[in-house]
Amino acid sequence: MLYKDAKRRLFVLLHPEIENTKWDKTFNAFIIGLIILNVIAVMLETVPSIYEPHKTLFKYFDIVSVIIFTLEYVLRVWTCNHDPNYSHSVQGRIKYIFSFGALIDLLAILPFYLHVFVGFDLRVLRILRLLKFLRLFRLTAYMNSTRLVINVFKATKNELLLSLVLTLFLIVISSCLVYFCEHTVQPEQFTSIPGTMWWSVITLTTVGYGDMYPITNLGRILTSIILLAGVALFALPAGIITAGFLDEIRRVRNLNKIFKCPHCGGELPEGMHH
C-alpha cells in the first residue's frame, strides 16, 4: 500500500495539471527554471568570451542537469501506469516511451550519453546538443494555461484546416496567374510556377523581400488584388482562434463557478443549480 501511494504521489507531482499543492508548485517552478537555464547555457556556450573562462562551470551544470532530467524521465516511465492510457505494466510503459512528451525528454538528454558512451566527434556533438532546445516543449507540461491553448486548437481544428486549404489554394492560383504575366518579360526571375510560389508566399504574408516583383501592368494589378486577398485571408485564422479562446475561457469559468443554495448558502453539487 505504501509503495502504491508513493508511486501515485510521484505521478501527481510529475503531472502538475492534476493537483495544485504547494509541493506541486515548487516542483513546477524548479523544473521550469532548470529548463530555461539549460537553454540559456546552450546559447551562452556559443559566445567564446563567456564559455572559455567558465568551461568547467558549464560542464558541471550540464552533468547535474542531465542527472535531474534523467531521474525525472525514469520516474515518469515508472509512474505512467496511473494514467488510464498507459495502465498496462509493460505495454503501457512501452506506449508511453514512444509518446511525444517522452520522446522529447529522451532526445533532450541523449546527446550527453552519446558523448559519454559512444564518443561522438565534437562537431557532431555540437549539432546534437541543439536537441536540448526540445526541452522548451516540455514547458507546456508544467503550465496549466497550456491546456486552454490545446483545447482551443482542438475545438477549432476544422476551421483552421479550412483556412489553411484556402491559403494553399490562393498561393497556387496567384502563382499561376503571375507566372503567365511575368515569365515572358522576366524569365530569369519567374522561371516556373513552383518557382513563382516563393513570390506568392512572401507577397501573401506581406513580407516582400524584393528579390522577385512584377513589372508588367497586368502583373501589378494582380499583385494588388493578391495582397488585399492575402491580408483578408490571413486575418481569418486570427479571428477563428480569438473566438475559440473566448469560448474556452467562458467554458472554464462556468466549470469553476461555485453555485450556492439560495436557502442555506451551502455549495450545490454539479448539475443541481438549474
Question: Could you characterize the architecture of this molecule?
Answer:
- The protein is an all-alpha fold and 274 residues long.
- Helices cover 70% and strands 0% of the residues.
- The chain is built from 12 helices and no strands.
- Helix 4 packs across helix 6 (100-118).
The tally of strands reads: 0
**Corresponding CATH architecture of the largest domain:** Up-down Bundle
Tell the overall outline. Answer: extended
Domain count: the total is: 2
Separation of termini?
A: 41 Å
Report the radius of gyration as a whole number of Å. Answer: 27 Å
In short:
Helices cover 70% and strands 0% of the residues. By secondary structure, it is an all-alpha fold.
SSE arrangement:
Blueprint: H1 2-14, H2 22-44, H3 48-51, H4 55-79, H5 91-97, H6 100-118, H7 122-128, H8 135-138, H9 145-155, H10 157-182, H11 193-204, H12 217-256
Helix pairs in contact: 1-4, 4-6, 9-12, 10-11, 10-12
